[in-house]
Amino acid sequence: MRKSSYIENMDEWKNSFRFYHKVSVRFSETDMFGHLNNTVPFTYFEEARIEFLKENGLMDAWLQRENDSIPVVADLQCDFLAQVFFGEEVLIHVKVQSIGNSSADIHYMGKKRDGKIVFTGRGAMVQISKSTGRPVPWSLIDKQKLIHGLEKESMAGA
Amino acid sequence: MRKSSYIENMDEWKNSFRFYHKVSVRFSETDMFGHLNNTVPFTYFEEARIEFLKENGLMDAWLQRENDSIPVVADLQCDFLAQVFFGEEVLIHVKVQSIGNSSADIHYMGKKRDGKIVFTGRGAMVQISKSTGRPVPWSLIDKQKLIHGLEKESMAGA
Amino acid sequence: MRKSSYIENMDEWKNSFRFYHKVSVRFSETDMFGHLNNTVPFTYFEEARIEFLKENGLMDAWLQRENDSIPVVADLQCDFLAQVFFGEEVLIHVKVQSIGNSSADIHYMGKKRDGKIVFTGRGAMVQISKSTGRPVPWSLIDKQKLIHGLEKESMAGA
Amino acid sequence: MRKSSYIENMDEWKNSFRFYHKVSVRFSETDMFGHLNNTVPFTYFEEARIEFLKENGLMDAWLQRENDSIPVVADLQCDFLAQVFFGEEVLIHVKVQSIGNSSADIHYMGKKRDGKIVFTGRGAMVQISKSTGRPVPWSLIDKQKLIHGLEKESMAGA
């Protein structure tokens, strides 16, 4: 399997996920080449990331209109390892790989029920102010929530 | 050609449009059956409707965050008359068919360069309050802008 | 509640559905007005219709590349009854309303867990030949599968 | 400006593009945070890449149903440098960065009319066989078409 720059040890990496969100490939997500269009996994990443953040208690404040802080995506990447077809179920795994002052590096793995990895990915998420556009450092409590996610991974990797 | 309930006289109807917005079918908008997926023309309608409203000076206020009134779509329909394929150009025609107290009926026609009509549609747009969700009657000036669009059509149809 | 032309008796109509498919509103499906964009329910209709057809044993042949018949959507409409927001679950109900020679009229109802109907819709589906583009009459067995769906509804309505 | 791993010298890099395709941000491409959703630039990349390949005479064969070779995307990445809003025009620049045996590395730059770069990206494209899924080496003529693109860049960078 082709190795991506953000994956040091594939076996360790793929075993360190503890959360996943299931998606099924929609008909409208295929293209005329007959497979899942390459722009769609990023939609899956977003959907799964938000479910992951919800589970860790991080989405609520961000979704309140009066809150000035929102999480934005600083970068995103995806490696497409196998073609995916209409109707197939993909389990989108998500984990926090590392935490910065106002950012976090999130990793993704799309895996089928039979264990086949069909795509992998990563992206940095940054908390910014809606009014100024500048980064907003994580609060202690948000950091703990993210570290909690991280620790689950670390323990899992141990 | 199959006639839709919202079209009384096809010849008159198709000649009464004065505005169009050009779109090209994206690869990601096709599906595994090889043609434009049926959910996409509604995206084209929205894009063309907004260009039409901009041209008639109606979008600016709605896009300001502090403005409480926004236009919402009350209903939408589309008749698919011919398959459309990747890369094809479609001219999305838009007109105001009638104006209510806080609503307007908007008609759409998707036509290729060679004159072939590939889909038709319509939908009511209603101005509502973001805070209450209730309809907000058109101001005199907005009504004039919409009537202006209507008159252009009427004159054209005369 | 506003009544649509395709709904004669709202109480009967809403009680005649026997199938639904659950969707959750994705973040990427919202727009800058803060609610579900109006183009997305048509994607939900497609997803739910295909699940419905699968359950009635009708999708398998259509998805085989060597099969010349495919179902296409002849028209689609949607009435938006209430705003829908990010993360909300909507149960997309589907039923066959009537069957023609090579077509079927499919009805849709989007309902929240609390029973609130947020949108309704309908659309004709036609079986056509990929090579000629002409309608292909239902086989006896396909018709029986569709009638079976219809009967379930009729019985339910009795 | 944050520098991405695939950009060695930002000034050289941004001046080496010779092709661009213009897009306007659709209303349906915004999300409830009020800006362009992060999944959409990948759609823009695809649209612009295909226009670029067309201009270099590379798309025609791939789009013929009887042709067994299709181009697939092996990986994709995007760095989001500035928020983009509804209605804004973005010029999506595309170039071939390097050519392999059956693959090519494509670079992207999204720039506004005022010269502001709003996102950058890259991704490998691979020619594969529809029937076997295996890479198909570029023909001499396809390679020349890609090298031609490359040369234009190289000359431009000189």
Q: Give me the secondary-structure category of chain A.
A: alpha+beta
Report the CATH superfamily of chain A. Answer: Hotdog Thioesterase
Number of helices of chain A: 4
Q: What is the H-and-E element order of chain A? A: HEHHEEEEEH
Major β-sheet annotation of chain A: 6 strands, antiparallel
Q: What do you see in this structure?
A:
Four copies of one chain form a homotetramer. The first copy, chain A, has helices at 10-15, 41-55, 59-62, 140-157; strands at 19-24, 69-73, 75-80, 89-99, 103-111, 117-129. Chain A is of the alpha+beta class. Chain A has a single domain (10-157), classed as Roll (Thiol Ester Dehydrase, Chain A), CATH 3.10.129. In chain A, strands 1, 2, 3, 4, 5 and 6 form a six-stranded antiparallel beta sheet that branches. Chain A is globular. Chains in contact: A-B, A-C, A-D, B-C, B-D, C-D.
